[in-house]
Amino acid sequence: MLRSINKLMHGFDFDRNDGDLSGSYVVEKLDGWRVRWTGTRLFLRSGKAVNAPDWFTEGLPRRILDCELWAGRGARDEVSRAVASKAGNWRSLRLMIFDAPTVAGDFALRHAAMMRLDLGEFAEVVPMEVLPSMDSLPQMLERVVSKGGEGLMIHRRGRSYRAGRVDGLLKFKPQHLAEFDLIARQHALWSVPV
User: Fold this and answer.
1) Angle 68-71-72 (CA atoms, 0-180°, nearest 5)?
2) For 46-87, what is the HEC assignment?
3) pLDDT in tens, 75-107
């Protein structure tokens, strides 16, 4: 059992009071199982060790990484079956790395450090995009959701990794579009010349 697993960073749901997020870093919110790689083993959020086959973790760096065990969009049950048994279909899984808690700096610096890591055959870094403007957020969400994705995670610029629920990390899912539309309507009203 690993107690430090409780030191994961978690985001809040998007809210209309979050302000302009232009320039923030956006990644797909994956629908797998959240895990932490300690440099030697995988652990679930509960702190329970994951009995991953050695070949699955072979080649992973000896540093702490926040990850998602992922079998693809809509395939969370496949992850559950694999994790339930070391003999499960681990070859259908990917270890998707989405943060490096021990790297100093904001998400852009942490992501750049992750991209430089030598990873094993079954691991990859979750791709990141910069949010050009608030107007592009619904299109980014639609692109992910249309492929069966769950939503987006938005990392505010200039925020370091902090354990717990933090306002520097936001979840943006289809149910948040109503909030977003309200912001767009208010902005349109405010920008109308009088």
Assistant:
1) 100
2) CCCECCCCHHHHCCCCCCCEEEEEECCCCCHHHHHHHHHCCC
3) 999 999 998 876 778 999 999 999 999 999 999
Backbone angles phi, psi at 115, to 5 degrees: -65, -25
User: What is the C-alpha to C-alpha distance for residues 69 and 79, in angstroms, rounded to an integer?
Assistant: 7
User: What does the alpha-carbon distance between residue 88 and residue 81 come to, in Å, rounded to a whole number?
Assistant: 6
Structure tokens at 99: 């943060």
**What separation in angstroms does the CA of 169 have from each of 19, 82, 92, 148?**
13, 29, 29, 22
State the angle between helix axes of 177-190 and 137-145 in degrees (0 to 180), rounded to the nearest 10. Answer: 160
The three-point CA angle 165-155-122 to 5° equals 95
Cα(127)–Cα(149) distance, integer angstroms: 14
Residues in the chain: 194
* Backbone φ/ψ region at 9: left (φ over 0), alpha (ψ -120 to 50), beta: beta
Give the predicted TM-score (pTM) of the model.
0.85
Amino acid at 51: N
Strand 123-125 relative to strand 25-29: parallel, antiparallel, unpaired? unpaired
Q: Token pair for residue 96? A: 């998707």
Q: Hey, what are 175's tokens?
A: 């149910």
